[in-house]
Amino acid sequence: MAVKKASEMFPKRLIEDVHKWGCMKQTGVSLRYMMEFGSKPTERNLLISAQFLHKELPIRVARRAIELETLPYGLSEKPAVLKVRDWYVESFRDMRAFPEIKDTSDEKDFTQMIKAVKVRHNNVVPMMALGVNQLKKGINSENLDEIHRFLDRFYLSRIGIRMLIGQHVELHNPNPPLHTVGYIHTKMSPMEVARNASEDARSICFREYGSAPEINIYGDPNFTFPYVPTHLHLMVFELVKNSLRAVQERFVDSDRIAPPIRIIVADGLEDVTIKVSDEGGGIARSGLPKIFTYLYSTARNPLEEELEIGTADVPVTMAGYGYGLPISRLYARYFGGDLQIISMEGYGTDAYLHLSRLGDSQEPLP
C-alpha cells in the first residue's frame, strides 16, 4: 500500500493551517480552576468555555498532527499511525471549520461537534500501540527511547484534550450527580474509588484464572477530596490488575493460599497517597527501568497484526500491550501527582500513587 503524506491526503490550505496553529502557544488550566469555573454552569460561562476551547483545542490537536507526520524509524508510515494522523487532521478541520461562537445556539452546536471529535479518538491508544508494535519488530530496543518520549508527550496531550472536552460536555448535564462539577467530584472518596476499581480488577482475574487473591483496603472511609474519579479508577485498576496477576501466577501451583493484596490510602497535607502492595515475587532490579516504557510487558500481547484498522474497542485483559503503567503515571502527573514503583525481587512490589491534594498545578503541556 502506498503511503500518503497528509499533504497528499488533505487540501494544501488545511495542512498549512495545521502548521500555523501548531506553532501557537498552548494555555494550561488547573483542576482548581476547572472546578471553580464549572461550579456555575450558566449560559454565559458555557459560552466563555466554548470560546476558549474553540481556540485552544485546534492548537493542541495541530501539534500532535504535525508530530505524527515526523516520527523516526518509519513509524509515521505504519498504517495504524496513518489512521491516527488522519483522525487528528480531520478533527482539526472540523474545529477550524466551525464559525465564531457568538450565542447559546452556537455553543450547543459546538458542544455536539467536540463530542463527536472525542468519540472519533476513542481507539487512539490501541491503534498507536499496534503501529509501535509493528515497528518494534524491526528496530533495536535502544532506538525505542525516542519513541517512548514521543508517546509520553502524545498520550499526555491526549489526556488533556479529552479532559477539556469531557469537562465542557458534562457541564451540560441537567441532573449532575451530587458534589460533581463536570468530570470532577468535589468530595471524592479515594477509599470508595479504590474499592470499585479493585472489584473490577478481581472480576477480570476471576475470568482469566478462575480465582483471585483477596484485596484488603485500609484508610479513613470518611476522607474526601476533589479529584476526577474516572482517572483514579483507571490508575488503581491498572495497579491492582498487575498485582493480582503477579500473585496469581506465583501461587498457582502452590499449596499456600495466595496472600492478599493490601491497599493503603493516606491523606497528607499536600498529597493523597495510595499504596498497592503485593507478594507476587517482585521485579528484578535490572527490569525496573523498563516498567515505565511502552510495550514492556511480561505477558502475551493481545494486539495481533491481523487487528483490523477499523476495529472496535480492544477487550480488557489481565495483561496486555505494556501501556498500563506508563499511561497511569501520565494520568497521575496530569494533575501534579506521580507514580513510583518499589520492588523486592523474591518477595513483592509496592506501587505508590501520589495525587496532589491542592489541585492548583497547571496542566503539563507537551
UniProtKB/TrEMBL annotation:
GO biological process: regulation of glucose metabolic process
Protein EC: 2.7.11.-
Signal peptide as annotated in the record: none
Reactions performed catalytically: L-seryl-[pyruvate dehydrogenase E1 alpha subunit] + ATP = O-phospho-L-seryl-[pyruvate dehydrogenase E1 alpha subunit] + ADP + H(+)
Origin superkingdom: Eukaryota
Keyword Repressor tagged: no
Keyword Aminoacyl-tRNA synthetase included in the entry's annotation: no
Main subcellular location of this protein, as a coarse class: mitochondrion
Cellular compartments per GO CC: mitochondrial matrix
Positions of the Histidine kinase domain: 229-359
Protein localization: Mitochondrion matrix
Keyword annotations of the record: ATP-binding, Kinase, Mitochondrion, Nucleotide-binding, Transferase
Pfam families in alphabetical order: BCDHK_Adom3, HATPase_c
SUPFAM superfamilies per UniProt: alpha-ketoacid dehydrogenase kinase, N-terminal domain, ATPase domain of HSP90 chaperone/DNA topoisomerase II/histidine kinase
An annotated Gene Ontology molecular function: ATP binding
Gene3D superfamilies registered for this protein in UniProt: Alpha-ketoacid/pyruvate dehydrogenase kinase, N-terminal domain (1.20.140.20), Histidine kinase-like ATPase, C-terminal domain (3.30.565.10)
Record-stated family: Belongs to the PDK/BCKDK protein kinase family.
Protein name, UniProt field: Protein-serine/threonine kinase
